[in-house]
């Protein structure tokens, strides 16, 4: 009588080989994933579709287009592959900006659809940043990115506790601010334009939590008023 345990082991081994084989490309290298999300920071009445090598990213996220001030969730792309990413008018299908990028294995990225300035002749552009997603259970971590191309000056960032002060221009970003006392009012963050110190926006400490990694996207309205949004990376 044949031993059923042998057949069980053979079945498990065959299944494992099948799974491994399905994760290997024809050239013998292992396929892995990267994660990407997209932010539309260009002020426009028309939403944008974003394509990866002519494939609409909505196939992974269920979103058909991003309007001004909107962003997608992270979606998965095959890593270590060259991509041409372009933004197209959701009505006409015309592309007005593109970027070539190779997304690294196991990494997370944000793509910003933005402009260098507010001139009507300036074409939009796509900028790619790598995101930190590894949490620290003892603190919140926050990165600030200035995409406010309509703003009249740089942006100053401080906290109520007086432990942090940074000024960044358009297209610039900060190192991650690490906040351990997220449960106190001292962690509240203030943002204001350098040339308009009397007008201050704030991000309450109540919106922060230990173990979370955040990105604050600084933007501007069509009239140059400061605005921002806090987005979690994890």
What does it look like?
This protein is mainly beta and 234 residues long. It has 2 domains: 31-131, Immunoglobulin-like (Sandwich); 133-234, Immunoglobulin-like, CATH 2.60.40. Helices cover 10% and strands 39% of the residues. The protein contains 2 helices and 16 strands. The protein has helices at 4-22, 58-61, and strands at residues 33-40, 48-52, 55-56, 75-78, 82-89, 95-102, 108-114, 125-131, 140-146, 155-159, 165-168, 177-179, 189-193, 201-203, 213-220, 226-232. The strands form 4 sheets. It has a 4-stranded mixed sheet, with no helix packed on it. The chain has a 4-stranded antiparallel sheet with strand order 3-2-5-6. The chain has a 4-stranded mixed sheet with strand order 12-9-15-16, with no helix packed on it. β10 and β11 form a beta hairpin. The protein is globular, with a radius of gyration of 22 Å.
CATH topology of the largest domain: Immunoglobulin-like
Structural classification: mainly beta
Shape descriptor: globular
The pLDDT mean sits at 86
Oligomer: single chain
| The CATH C-level class name of the largest domain | Mainly Beta
- Main sheet record: 4 strands, mixed
Detail the poorly predicted runs.
13-30
Q: Report helical residue fraction.
A: under 10%
Instruction: Count up the domains.
Output: 2
Give the total of beta strands: 16
Order of helices and strands: HEEEHEEEEEEEEEEEEE
Q: Judging by the overall fold, what is the CATH architecture of the largest domain?
A: Sandwich
Q: Terminal Cα separation, in Å?
A: 54 Å
Organism: Pedobacter endophyticus
Pfam family, one: DUF4397
Domain DUF4397: 34-148
InterPro entries: DUF4397
């Amino acid at each position: 009588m044949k031993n059923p345990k042998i057949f069980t082991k053979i079945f498990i081994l065959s299944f494992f080989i099948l799974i491994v084989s399905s994760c290997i490309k024809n050239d013998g290298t292992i396929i892995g994933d990267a994660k990407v999300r997209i932010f539309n920071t260009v002020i426009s009445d028309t939403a944008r579709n974003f394509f990866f090598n002519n494939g609409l990213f909505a196939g992974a996220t269920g979103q058909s287009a991003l309007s001004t001030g909107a962003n997608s969730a992270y979606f998965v792309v095959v890593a270590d592959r060259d991509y041409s990413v372009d933004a197209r008018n959701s009505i006409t299908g015309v592309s007005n900006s593109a970027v070539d990028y190779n997304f690294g294995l196991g990494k997370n990225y944000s793509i910003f659809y933005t402009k260098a300035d507010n001139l009507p002749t300036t074409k939009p552009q796509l900028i790619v940043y790598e995101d930190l997603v590894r949490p620290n259970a003892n603190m919140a971590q926050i990165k600030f990115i200035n995409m406010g191309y309509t703003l009249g000056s740089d942006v100053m960032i401080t906290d109520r506790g007086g432990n942090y002060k940074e000024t960044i221009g358009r297209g610039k970003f900060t190192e991650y601010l690490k906040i351990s006392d997220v449960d106190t009012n001292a962690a509240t963050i203030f943002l204001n334009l350098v040339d308009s110190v009397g007008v201050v926006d704030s991000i309450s400490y109540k919106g922060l939590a230990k173990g979370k990694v955040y990105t604050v996207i600084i933007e501007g309205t069509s009239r140059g008023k400061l605005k921002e949004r806090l987005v979690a990376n994890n």
